[in-house]
Amino acid sequence: MESALRKIRRAMKCDREAARALLVISSKMEGIYSELEPYFRDYIEPFCKNCPTPCCVNRHGFPDFEDLIFLNACGRNLNEFDFACADTDMCQYLGSNGCRLARCARSYRCTWYFCDEVLDRFESEHSASFMKFDELMHKLASERAKLIKKFESLWSHLA
Residue 24 belongs to what domain range? Predict the structure, then answer.
């Protein structure tokens, strides 16, 4: 992971204009995460907190290459993560009151992963809110795709 992180940082230093474009996209993503937060807080987290078998396991929390691009583009510190632990163990950031990380500091996979029961309940009990939530999640996915495409363009010019 440190090797991937060094490559990302090197690429961003080589082309300041592209790095600024990545910052603009990542800032939009942070804004979408902020818009999403009330939906997580009000509709998803209460259900998850009472779950006897939480889905919050390391495999959902491990950052991938694209997460590293986002975290670097928006200037966030990469959280220390013990990759030697089992991916089926409870997530290292799961505390007694939920995740200790800000939503936009988590892996993208963590933000997108919900069990069917949570989604079904959210959609059936709060359909209007669920529709807005779903719209924002798709907007986030679209911005992430733009970020990755922009980075890949930058990366291909350096190779």
Answer: 2-158
**Residue, of 95 and 25, whose pLDDT is higher:** 25
Structural domains counted in the chain: 1
Q: Which tens digits make up the pLDDT trace of 98-127?
A: 888 888 889 999 888 888 889 999 999 999
pLDDT tens digits, one per residue of 10-52: 777 777 788 889 999 999 999 999 999 999 999 888 888 888 8
Number of H helices and number of E strands within the chain? 8, 2
Nearest to 143 by CA among 31, 18, 8: 31
Alpha carbon separation from 138 to 71, 72, 92, 118, 121 (Å, rounded): 19, 22, 27, 18, 19
Residue with tokens 């949570």: 118
Burial of residue 61, with CB atoms counted within 10 A of its CB: 0-12 exposed, 13-18 middle, 19 or more buried: buried
Q: Are 60 and 25 in contact (CB under 8 A)?
A: no
